[in-house]
Amino acid sequence: MFEVIRKIWKTGIVTRKLPSEEAPRRYRGKLDIQPHKCKNCGACVAACPTGAIEVLSNDECCELVVSYGKCIFCGICAEVCETQIMRMTNGYHLATKNKKDLIQVVRIPQ
């Protein structure tokens, strides 16, 4: 027991807060979506291996729904999009207490 306390006393604080540096440039994090370019083709929905992307449409509007709780950040959706509306960013701050905060809804103009 005393050995553990002595070791902790010598090393000091080993826990750090969030990293002070940004994620690497090619890190695949949260999506940046630019809806004004979207053709509503559904290629991203079909390509997503986990079903994290949905397109909800009615007579008035169309919405692209991304569930980050299901997303594995593989980047396939961004690769298959012919109009390049999706881009993987290096944003990794997605921690939340509410599951609903992990859902991004983007309105697509028709």
TrEMBL record:
<keyword id="KW-0249">Electron transport</keyword>
<keyword id="KW-0004">4Fe-4S</keyword>
<protein>
    <submittedName>
        <fullName>Formate hydrogenlyase complex iron-sulfur subunit</fullName>
    </submittedName>
</protein>
<feature type="domain" description="4Fe-4S ferredoxin-type">
    <location>
        <begin position="62"/>
        <end position="91"/>
    </location>
</feature>
<dbReference type="InterPro" id="IPR050572">
    <property type="entry name" value="Fe-S_Ferredoxin"/>
</dbReference>
<dbReference type="GO" id="GO:0051539">
    <property type="term" value="F:4 iron, 4 sulfur cluster binding"/>
</dbReference>
<dbReference type="GO" id="GO:0046872">
    <property type="term" value="F:metal ion binding"/>
</dbReference>
<keyword id="KW-0456">Lyase</keyword>
<dbReference type="GO" id="GO:0016829">
    <property type="term" value="F:lyase activity"/>
</dbReference>
<keyword id="KW-0677">Repeat</keyword>
<keyword id="KW-0411">Iron-sulfur</keyword>
<dbReference type="Pfam" id="PF00037">
    <property type="entry name" value="Fer4"/>
</dbReference>
<keyword id="KW-0408">Iron</keyword>
<feature type="domain" description="4Fe-4S ferredoxin-type">
    <location>
        <begin position="29"/>
        <end position="58"/>
    </location>
</feature>
<dbReference type="InterPro" id="IPR017896">
    <property type="entry name" value="4Fe4S_Fe-S-bd"/>
</dbReference>
<keyword id="KW-0479">Metal-binding</keyword>
<keyword id="KW-0813">Transport</keyword>
<dbReference type="InterPro" id="IPR017900">
    <property type="entry name" value="4Fe4S_Fe_S_CS"/>
</dbReference>
